[in-house]
Amino acid sequence: MNSRERILGRVRRALADAPEDDKPVERGYLRVHGDRGAEETVELLAENLADYRALVHRCSQDELPSVIGRLLAERGAKSVIVPPGLDAAWLSATEADRVEDTARSTPYELDRVDSVVTACAVAIAETGTIVLDGGPDQGRRRITLVPDHHVCVVRVPGQVVSSVPQALERLDPARPLTWISGPSATSDIELDRVEGVHGPRTLEVILVG
């Protein structure tokens, strides 16, 4: 018996005499603050993303490849890691070498990649949060944590919701969810902010609509 089985066994014994309660959990809290339309919700998302120091760009679907190409060129990216299900047309305007997202990739190999481009599962306007769920166009969680530059594409207004409760309704809790509110950052005891500690130093979000 391993440690996991031992702990789960203790939990089962502790709950053996507990009455079964199938009553639904009452959720009386506000699901959204205010009455915003789709355009106002997207504007709030852009505002809060920028407040978290993400770089926000807007474009049409036709302009997306050129915008991605420009952002990678401005970054000087010579290599970009690509989730297996990402639309190949998105990278048609860049000459950066494509690096495949595979289970064999080591952290050291990922650290040598300049940028990563992904889609997202949902974006939350009230918190300025992008959520990834490991879908085919987002790839494994680690490809968005190791490279120093992350370009994330959000389809608006379809992928944008106002609040966290609305986002949770769209997400599968069994999937590997990554919640991103701006570039990775932390502060020491004197509140000196350091970026790029637990993930990308630079987050660029493209709102495509």
From TrEMBL:
<dbReference type="InterPro" id="IPR003741">
    <property type="entry name" value="LUD_dom"/>
</dbReference>
<dbReference type="Pfam" id="PF02589">
    <property type="entry name" value="LUD_dom"/>
</dbReference>
<dbReference type="InterPro" id="IPR037171">
    <property type="entry name" value="NagB/RpiA_transferase-like"/>
</dbReference>
<dbReference type="InterPro" id="IPR024185">
    <property type="entry name" value="FTHF_cligase-like_sf"/>
</dbReference>
<feature type="domain" description="LUD">
    <location>
        <begin position="43"/>
        <end position="208"/>
    </location>
</feature>
<protein>
    <submittedName>
        <fullName>Lactate utilization protein B/C</fullName>
    </submittedName>
</protein>
